[in-house]
Write a structure and sequence with these properties.
Order of helices and strands: HHH
Oligomer: single chain
Distance between the termini: 72 Å
Number of helices: 3
Shape: globular
Largest sheet: none
Helix content: over 70%
């Protein structure tokens, strides 16, 4: 009798170093370069998850959660800098 095992990876939305790295890159890059970076990052994450055995729907949810976490980091970063920007006016 064999037992079925399931690989459970650390959730992408909790990978703080990756989230901060991507948010910083997206803040630094612009236009097509930013789009290309983001597409490449999301595709690489999707490929890693599929290689780990995630189903297509589970992979898509993980990628969406990661995208949301990066967006939240970008938003938080922008709002932390806002008062400093206003003081300069």
């Amino acid at each position: 009798m064999t037992k079925r095992s399931e690989v459970i990876a650390f959730p992408a939305k909790n990978r703080i170093a990756d989230i901060k790295r991507c948010a910083q890159m997206l803040d630094d890059l612009h236009g097509e370069e930013a789009d290309r970076f983001w597409r490449d990052e999301c595709r690489a994450l999707a490929a890693r998850l599929l290689n780990l055995g995630y189903s297509d729907s589970a992979m898509r949810q993980e990628v969406a959660d990661f995208q949301g976490a990066v967006q939240a980091e970008l938003w938080a970063s922008a709002h932390q800098e806002e008062p400093a920007r206003r003081e300069g006016y």
